[in-house]
Amino acid sequence: METIVSGARPTGRLHLGHLHGALKNWIRLQENYRCYFFVADWHALTTDYATPQGIGQSTIEMVMDWLSVGLDPARSVLFRQSRVKEHAELHLIYSMITPVPWLERNPTYKEQIKELTGKDLSTYGFLGYPVLQAADITIYKANKVPVGVDQAPHVELTREIVRRFNQLYRSIFPEPEVLLTETQKLPGLDGRKMSKSYGNAVFLSDPPAEIDRKLSRMMTDPARVKRTDPGEPEKCPAFQLHKIYCTPEEIEFVSTGCRTAGIGCLECKKVMIKHVIEDLAPFREKRAQLEKRPEVVEEVLQAGHQAAQKKASETMSEVRETLGL
Ligand code: TRP
Ligand code: SF4
Fold first, then answer.
1. Which of 18, 229, 253, 277 gives 20 to 30 Å between its CA and that of 204?
2. For ligand 1, is residue 276 a contact (CB within 6 Å)?
3. CB-side exposure of 62: number of CA atoms within 13 Å?
4. What is the pTM assigned to this prediction?
């Protein structure tokens, strides 16, 4: 069985964008691969080093959502990055062989430095972000890494580091491949990409009334100002959700109704809202159980830690031996 590794920074409660991005994909992959999925809490520190207090709570919230949505600790190894110290040791070794210009020309690095202007990111750790990621991936000898397109340069860098290691010393690491996650760029309530920081997200753990309230106010085709104005579903952010959640008959019904001004936007959205709420029902049930027994999350992470640590320490023994340390 091939091995898959992926991680996510602890962002707290997850939303529909996460569900239709990484999560559904991960849930599918655990059927056919040996999967390691971890909370990248050290990576969170690279940008949030000044405010680390929230990371612990965000980790628990995120893992609770992981379990509620169907990541299965009986199939996948779920753990916290910061508990498996071997990641840090391999990161250190890789830092010796990674030329600084490889890191400086990384497009994600350049973009984030420009975007996150409120933070001083001229740190050693932030530049080395992809080196740590290379350690995360290769310490489990991953064959494939499911990530969004923004992370592809990091996996490419991992491959370069692996090639250099294998050439300099001995070939012990497979070159991991990117498994590009087809993200249906899920629009948020205001039509921009769904993101917690934009305040436009529908959280998986929102109660039904809250989901209804949020989606009832979701942005529609801006050309449909009055009820009598015809609209175009393809220009409507809410309709992106119809495409995911509604039956072909319903999609046909609302599209025609929209283009002929035969239905109003609220009526149209109610057709979709009903499905979103229903679809999340099993999730809510599982999450309610976990909220009553939060110690289960800790237990899962502890068991995952042991499995991860076992594999990671085997790899590190091999690395030390290879280097004659
Ligand atoms: N950098 C990734 C992100 O921001 C998280 C991450 C850390 C990761 N280590 C990883 C993803 C290893 C895949 C494999 O989403
Ligand atoms: Fe969007 Fe439906 Fe309104 Fe058309 S009728 S603009 S598809 S919400």
1. 253
2. no
3. 25
4. 0.95
